Amino acid sequence: MDRQHYRRIENAMHVITLALSVILVIYISVDTIRDIPFMDNDCYMTFQLFVCTVFIIDFFFGIFLADDKWHYFRCRLLFLLLSVPYLNIIREFGLTLSQEQLYFVRVIPLARGALALAIIVGYISSNRITGFFVSYLAILLSMIYIASLMFYAQEHSVNPSVTGYWTALWWTWMDATTIGSNIYPVTVTGRILGVILAGMGMVLFPLFTVYITDLVNRYRHSGNGN
Question: Which end of the chain is more exposed for a tag (fewer CB within 10 A), N or C?
Fold first, then answer.
């Protein structure tokens, strides 16, 4: 099998990784909104183990194809760390964690899926600036959604202001845009999310300005060329 065929397999693995991530997002979303105890759900735990296994296979297949394997390993080490089935390890060894810690561990594979989405978007974009912008936008939106699930899971039972999931999503979006809202987190997890989202928003949202500026410049140069 030549290298071109291997590249096709690698692209297919990226698509499979993204598809499994989407299914995992749906699974976690339904369980969160319905308050289903995921650690006791054998079906979910088996599926997450399968997803993480595919993630790990995708990582090592990428190393196999890389010209500079050490460079690939160093640059993609985060992908490997996010692919480990931590929940299954915790349950197998009977480790004791708080509900907040367990939920954080649960959404770790979703971060791996967000990175896979960013990579795929970057591949299919014909313009480098556009690919860079859309990749970061995909990561931003993914992180906002993941944070909204975490915020709802930890706050809805103790915070009277969080009356439903859509309230949690609204708070997450307002915090990420640094606009703020009249909802104040009362749990440690909620407060930590508030700081992370605000910092992420201040870092990532200026990319909108950079992208719009690039579009305007390209339009002006195109007009001058005509």
Answer: C
182: enclosing H helix or E strand:
none
CA proximity to 145, closest of 3, 29, 19: 29
Count of domains forming the chain: 2
Q: Say what angle helices 128-155 and 99-106 make with each other, to 10 degrees.
A: 150
- Mean pLDDT by runs of 10 across the 226 residues of the chain is 73 82 86 81 88 90 87 88 90 84 84 73 59 72 87 90 91 85 88 86 71 71 60
Identity at 28, one-letter amino acid code:
I
**Residue 28: what are its φ and ψ, rounded to 5°?**
-65, -40
Which of 85, 100, 124 is the C-terminal boundary of a domain?
124
CATH code where residue 174 lies: 1.10.287.70
Token look-up 């598809």 returns: 19
Burial class of residue 88, CB neighbours in 10 A (0-12, 13-18, 19+): middle
pLDDT in tens, 66-88: 888 999 899 888 888 988 999 99
The radius of gyration of the chain's CA atoms, rounded to the nearest angstrom, is: 20
